[in-house]
Design brief:
The protein is of the alpha+beta class and 238 residues long. The chain contains 5 helices and 11 strands.
């Protein structure tokens, strides 16, 4: 007998004995879990789920998927190129019993995705996942109460794979109390000017002194993408 289950936004057709890789579950190796979102079991089709049906499985281990490379090259003269690698967090498990009914009375732990709020990691994470999630939550609390500034998730070192570097001429306020009118740049409106000021950019001469890596850094900060390279070229004529 086979069943079609849903987990991690995907659907899987399974039968007893199958070994399956799914999006990371909140369970340790050796634990038994039960999938309750069953779309079809045997000849019964759910509407959308089959009430009382379930699929039980044993967690073999927490693994990572194959590395996926994302490469982007911008065609502008002062553009940048970046390479990102990613390995998806997965759970390897072996399908056990397939229940057509009574799954809600088995008492087996429900298979829940590891990405849900409040999950603090599994033993295979060796503490890193737990520390990261706890640290992020604490930072959000401090930022909300004004005790800390919101953390910016941009690269800061030229040695990183994204090849960006923080400019050394960013300012906390305009020189002599008067900023240049950045809105004269094609495509820069009041909202973008505020973002640039918040990132420490107030003057055209700051922009013209940036290297390609520094342009990439500021573009990440303000969400300008490849357009920033064009603005830097325009700034040289201001």
């Amino acid at each position: 007998m086979f069943a079609v289950l849903k987990t991690g936004g995907k659907q899987y057709k399974v039968q007893s004995g199958d070994v399956l890789r799914v999006e990371k579950l909140a369970a340790n190796a050796g634990e038994k879990v039960q999938f309750n979102d069953i779309l079809m079991v045997g000849g019964t089709v759910g509407t959308p789920l089959v009430e009382g049906a379930g699929v039980q499985a044993e967690v073999i281990e927490q693994i990572k998927g194959d590395k996926v490379i994302h490469f982007v090259k911008r065609r502008r003269k002062h553009g940048s190129k970046r390479t990102k690698g990613h390995r998806q967090q997965l759970t390897l498990l072996r399908i056990g019993d397939i229940l057509e009914s009574g799954a809600d009375k088995t008492g087996v732990k429900e298979a829940i995705g590891a990405g849900i709020a409040g999950f603090t990691g599994v033993a295979a994470d060796k503490g890193d996942y737990v520390q990261n999630r706890t640290g992020q939550s604490e930072m959000k609390k401090r930022a909300a109460t004004g005790q800390a500034a919101e953390k910016v998730a941009a690269k800061t070192d030229a040695g990183d794979t994204d090849a960006t570097a923080k400019p050394g001429n960013l300012l906390t306020e305009p020189r002599d109390g008067k900023a240049d009118d950045l809105k004269t740049l094609n495509g820069v409106g009041p909202a973008m000017e505020k973002k640039m000021n918040a990132a420490g950019v107030y003057h055209f001469d700051q922009m013209t002194a940036w290297s390609e890596a520094e342009i990439g850094y500021v573009a990440d900060q303000i969400g300008a993408g490849a357009k920033l390279a064009d603005w830097v070229a325009e700034a040289k004529n201001q």
